[in-house]
Structure formats: structure tokens, C-alpha cells
């Protein structure tokens, strides 16, 4: 087992965290890596840090590009990647040194094109909780989708996973959208056919106030999420109807999260946006209270 694995790291505004991330990749026990650092037009010291690392490790390639957002940076990495497998790591996070090895082992052991591990949620110093842990094993596509939609041992995030490169022959992340992973996860699982779990917890997700997930409420972002939810619903209803109960609860949880964010940012004044969210939640609230 000596396949080349491309590790793609989109980078913007993380100069305080970048070294910890890159060091954890350089020190992987699996050595046959292509490490692609995508500088997404950073105005801090990230571009220089990337170049310094490239001078120290021949496995590192650096892309300096105009700022285009997370999806655009990931896509830029995919477009030049030479590996037989891809791994995505966000630049303010870090990973156990065994993560790539264990993910690739799972792909080989279970003859699958996609594998995942569990994650630690951390503030950078203290581990707050663990998430998406699971027993070692393999899921059918229906089982994997249900696990994701139910928030159990898998989720939509592109990171904490490994993918065979042919899963991205035609798929790219949607440029200009936050919550970009929601737009592609079901397509990737469908193409992969089966998904393995390593049974280990090896990805450290840093939850911080300035991250994309902490952005203020946006009507445009809400419309994008609803668009993606509608696409998922149509796809699952046709291809995986057994997943629909899980999907409806997933949809309701997303609506609730949007409503909660709106109230925190804007209050409960009965604006058109507030009424829209409330109406959507009322229509689906039975799934919210049904485990």
C-alpha cells in the first residue's frame, strides 16, 4: 500500500493556527503524501508561512490565488491534485498523525472508495466533546445517508474523511456558498456506494468565534440552504426513499438552526424573514420532536 494521497488545505486568515495544522500533516505516519496548501488571497502572514513550509518539505505544493472562498480554494486544490486519494483538512484544525494511514487502511480493508473517522471538538486548548464516533465497519449507501442525516457516526463535512479521486471527476464544491458540504455529500456517498468508518477519533475541529460557521444571519445564505435541501429531498425521494424520514428530521433541524440564528441576531420582530422561518418550522416541527 503506497498510493499517493493528496491532502488539500484551503487557507485564509489563520496565521495563528496554520503551523499546528501543517505540522500535523507533515508528521503523518503515512508518508506518500502530496500536501497542497491553497493560499486563498490571504492578507496576513499565511502566504509567507506556506512558502516557508514548501521550502522545507518537497511534498508541499503551494497555490497562491485571488480570494474566492473555501469552495473555490478546495476546487483549486482538486484541479491540480495527483493523488489516487484525496483528504481535506481545514487550516484552523489539526489531525492525529495516524489519521491518513487509518483512513486508507479502512478503504483497503473494506474495499470502499470513502472512509471516515470521528472528531474532537476543541477550543484549541481543551477538548469540549467528541462527535461522529462509530464502531469500525462499513455502511451501505442507505445506511451511510441515514447516519449522516441522523447526525450519528457520520456527517456532511468534507474533512475527517478520505475519498478515491474518481469521486471528484465531475463533482466540485459550489463557489460562493457557505455550508458548501451540504450541496455535495449525498452525491459523493451515492457514487462511493459504501462508506467505511475507522472506529477511531482522529480529527481535531477547532470551534472559534471568527470561523465561517459563526457568521451572522443572512437571508441569502438561508435561500442557498433551502435550495440545497430541496435538491437533496428530490434526489433521496427518487433514489433512496427509505432515507426520507431521516431527511425530514435533518431538514427540520436545519430550519431550526436558521431560526435560532436569526433570533439571536435580529430578535423576534415579525419581519417577512422571521415569518418565513416560523412557517417552515411549523410545517415540519413534528419531525423535530420525533427521534
Describe what you observe in this structure.
It is a single chain. With 291 residues, the chain is α/β, with parallel strands linked by helices. It has nine helices and ten strands. It has helices spanning 18-26, 46-56, 70-80, 99-110, 141-150, 185-192, 219-239, 244-266, 272-288; strands spanning 5-11, 33-39, 60-64, 85-88, 94-95, 114-122, 127-131, 137-139, 161-164, 195-206. Strands 1, 2, 3, 4, 5, 6, 7, 8, 9 and 10 form a ten-stranded mixed β-sheet that branches. The protein is globular, with a radius of gyration of 19 Å. The N and C termini lie far apart (42 Å). 39% of the residues are buried.
Q: How are the SSEs ordered, and which strands pair?
A:
Layout (H helix, E strand, L loop, with lengths): L4 E7 L6 H9 L6 E7 L6 H11 L3 E5 L5 H11 L4 E4 L5 E2 L3 H12 L3 E9 L4 E5 L5 E3 L1 H10 L10 E4 L20 H8 L2 E12 L12 H21 L4 H23 L5 H17 L3
Parallel strand pairs: 1-2, 1-4, 2-3, 6-10
Antiparallel strand pairs: 4-9, 5-10, 6-7, 6-9, 8-10
Helix pairs in contact: 7-8, 8-9
Provide keyphrases for this structure:
single chain; 291 residues; alpha/beta; 9 helices
Q: Order of SSEs, N→C?
A: EHEHEHEEHEEEHEHEHHH
Largest sheet: 10 strands, mixed
Mean pLDDT metric: 94
Helix/strand-derived category reads alpha/beta
Helix content bin: 40-55%
Strand tally, please?
10
In the predicted model, the low-confidence regions spanning at least 5 consecutive residues are: none
Q: What amount of the residues lies in strands?
A: 15-25%
Gross geometry: globular
**What is the count of DSSP helices, taking H or I runs of 4+ residues?**
9
How large is the radius of gyration? 19 Å
